[in-house]
Design a protein that fits this description.
Layout lengths: L5 H10 L2 H6 L5 E3 L2 E4 L11 E4 L4 E4 L5 E2 L1 H9 L3 H12 L14 H26 L4 H9 L4 H6 L3 E3 L5 H8 L4 H6 L3 E3 L6 E3 L4 E7 L5 E8 L7 E3 L15 H7 L4 E4 L2 H9 L5 E3 L7 H10 L2 E4 L5 H16 L3 E4 L8 H8 L1 H9 L2 E2 H10 L7 H16 L4 H15 L3 H42 L1 H15 L1 H10 L8 H15 L6 H7 L4 H12 L9 H29 L3 H31 L1
Parallel strand pairs: 12-13, 12-14, 14-15
Antiparallel strand pairs: 1-2, 2-3, 3-4, 4-5, 6-9, 7-8, 9-10, 10-11, 15-16
Helix pairs in contact: 1-4, 3-4, 11-14, 14-15, 16-17, 17-19, 20-21, 20-22, 20-25, 22-24, 25-26
The protein binds zinc ion.
Length: about 600
């Protein structure tokens, strides 16, 4: 067995709620006795990721991922079992024995924990500087001038980096944290002369960046006065990957479902939160990445882009639209008056005005059309032609034919141009560029889905179904279990994953343990394929008719015999080939015995079938 007692592991599992933990990663909706959401392990548009809270198992009917809470964390975070256990134990407040018991926990995991620990200390130090020190006065004034109230300072745990070269270094030394560790956390920089280090963040307002599990993964720092760079982020570390982080996300997740407002900067983000727009995230100053879009997709159907209204903001918006639309998100764009960012807007015009802007945010196509018309005089022939050229390429990019038609109608009325003419232009563009690509992509994913469905159906047919149903009965129906165990052994399951599950059940019964989904799933912690199979079996909808138990037992047995006969026939063949006559003969007698057995079985089941 592993490093921890079974009782301890069970205690952690019992205290953790799979729905609550997974909610950090996936936006879940109740559906009957289950919860469903978009699978975090494969890309999909309709939810096939399912959690059963009663059984504490998850299963994705799209990609076949499944298991218990440990399986989920191991797969999602790429952790080993001890790593997932340790993390979960901390989360639910179970104390695991320290030191020496780390055993198989990897170096990488230890490093991550160490950095998170240091970051937490650093965040506290920065926060203390802001609130309690004389040096922090300038930063306090800066925030006050920007209308940030103390409640927001606390909520985002804002801080201040002292205006000196070694403020953090000295503080950390007093806590016993050395330079090596600080370097790994990205908080200090080696001096050019090679002698020692200096603080990365100096004289800046500090925004701690948290990941969805609440750990401080990095920092952003904003300069107080003029100077470059205006914003400074932590470098990439073992816990911080900039392209995968979104500032403000941990707060947003708890809201669930609402449209997400995407802004550029930390100040925009906290200012919007302060004014009640708590579904706001910031893309950490960099332009939006594919990974960030994928994360957003997990929490909402729609994103409203609210970048600055300057030229840089516009091109960032256009890039953002492309990335978000590609991930299948609905996208709208907030148009602020020239030169304003959301923070400024809300400070000067108030939150009601901002709410109004939000509700009238343009669909991204309208936004692009609006942009295409800027600076053109549509009353002139020249202006019209230029505009149509741009508009056509925008409309050609819309995938839905119906939607395209709506825009053609609108445009044709506004510009008094026949629809037919617009259609011709649009079709030309489509044929030239978009169609072959989109067509191919669609076909491939369609094909993949069909294949998946086919494998699924195949898996459910015949003996597969019999083995699955028998296992489910063994878990859910005590009286059926007794009968099954009298007639079958774990050996009789041909499929290796199901054989493993059966072995565990037999073992549990022998040891007088209660046979529960949770219990079995724990025993399968070293065989994640079997754990997924278990989740799949138990999450199949509907009940199995108890009266089927005899027929199912025979079916499983018959299949086992068929399989064994086939195997032994091959062995006989091999033995004859290399001239081992003696061995061939002894195999032959086994072969005959199995043959007799299967014939007997067939006679039995047809007799039983006749009387029923
Ligand atoms: Zn999946």
């Amino acid at each position: 067995m592993g490093l921890y007692s079974e009782e301890l592991i069970r205690e952690v599992q019992n205290r953790a709620d799979i729905v609550e933990i997974v909610s950090d990663y996936v936006s879940l909706k109740r559906s009957g006795e289950n919860y469903v959401g978009l699978c975090p392990f494969h890309s999909e548009k309709t939810p096939s990721f399912t959690i059963n809270p009663k059984k504490q198992l998850f299963y994705c009917f799209g990609c076949g991922a499944g298991g218990n809470i440990f399986s989920f964390l191991m797969k999602k975070e790429n952790w080993t079992f001890p790593e997932a256990l340790r993390w979960l134990a901390e989360r639910v407040g179970v104390r695991l024995p320290e030191e020496g018991t780390w055993g198989k926990v990897s170096e990488a995991f230890k490093l991550k924990r160490e950095i998170l620990e240091i970051n937490k200390l650093a965040a506290e130090f920065f926060h203390h500087n802001l609130i309690n020190t004389a040096e922090g006065k300038r930063a306090r004034e800066y925030l006050a001038n920007r209308g940030i109230i103390s409640e927001t300072v606390e909520k985002f745990f804002l801080g201040y980096a002292l205006p000196c070269w070694d403020g953090l270094i000295r503080f950390m030394r007093s806590k016993g944290v050395g330079d090596d560790a600080l370097l790994k956390a990205g908080l200090i920089i080696p001096r050019r002369d090679g002698k020692g280090y200096y603080d990365r963040f100096r004289d800046r307002v500090i925004f701690p960046i948290k990941d969805i599990t609440g750990g401080t993964v990095g920092f952003g720092g904003r300069i107080l006065d003029k100077g470059e760079p205006k914003y400074l982020n932590s470098p990439e570390t073992a816990v911080f990957t900039k392209r995968e982080q979104l500032y403000g996300l941990p707060v947003v997740i708890k809201k669930g479902g609402a449209s997400i407002i995407l802004v550029e900067g930390y100040m925009d983000c906290i200012s919007l939160h302060q004014n009640g727009f708590t579904q706001t995230v910031a893309s950490l100053g960099t332009s939006l990445t594919e990974q960030q879009a994928k994360i957003l997709k997990r929490y909402s159907e729609e994103v409203i882009i609210a970048y600055d209204a300057d030229t840089a903001g516009q091109s960032a918006t256009l890039r953002g639209i492309e990335i978000l639309v590609k991930e299948g998100l609905k996208v709208r764009v907030l148009s602020l008056p020239e030169g304003k960012d959301p923070d400024e807007f809300i400070r000067t015009r108030g939150k009601d005005a901002f709410a109004e802007q939000l509700s009238s945010a343009l669909d991204f196509v309208d936004y692009k059309l609006d942009l295409a018309g800027r600076g053109l005089d549509l009353r002139t022939r020249d202006g019209k032609i230029k505009f149509i050229k741009k508009a056509v390429s925008v409309i050609a990019g819309i995938e839905s034919r119906v939607e395209r038609e709506l825009y053609v109608q609108k445009l044709s009325e506004e510009l008094s141009i026949p629809r037919q003419a617009l259609h011709e232009e649009i079709n030309k563009t489509i044929n030239k560029t978009t169609l072959p690509n989109i067509g191919l992509k669609y076909k491939n994913s369609q094909l993949r889905d069909n294949n998946k469905e086919l494998t699924r159906l195949k898996a459910l047919s015949g003996f597969h179904k019999a083995e699955r149903d028998i296992l489910r009965m063994m878990i859910e129906d005590d009286s059926a279990r007794d009968k099954i165990m009298k007639n079958l052994t774990a050996h009789n399951f041909v499929n290796a994953k199901r054989r493993k599950i059966a072995e565990m059940i037999f073992e549990m019964v022998k040891r007088n343990e209660a046979v529960t989904p949770r219990g079995i799933s724990l025993k399968l912690k070293d065989d994640q394929a079997a754990a997924a199979e278990l989740a799949n079996i138990l999450m199949e909808p509907g009940n199995i008719d108890n009266g089927m138990v005899d027929a199912l037992i025979n079916r499983v047995k018959e299949n086992y015999l068929k399989f064994a006969i086939k195997k032994i026939r091959n062995e006989i063949h091999q033995a004859e080939k290399i001239g081992e006559v003696k061995k061939a003969f002894s195999l032959l007698s086994t072969y005959h015995r199995l043959k007799l057995e299967i014939e007997q079985l067939k006679r039995d089941s047809s007799r039983k079938g006749g009387t029923r």
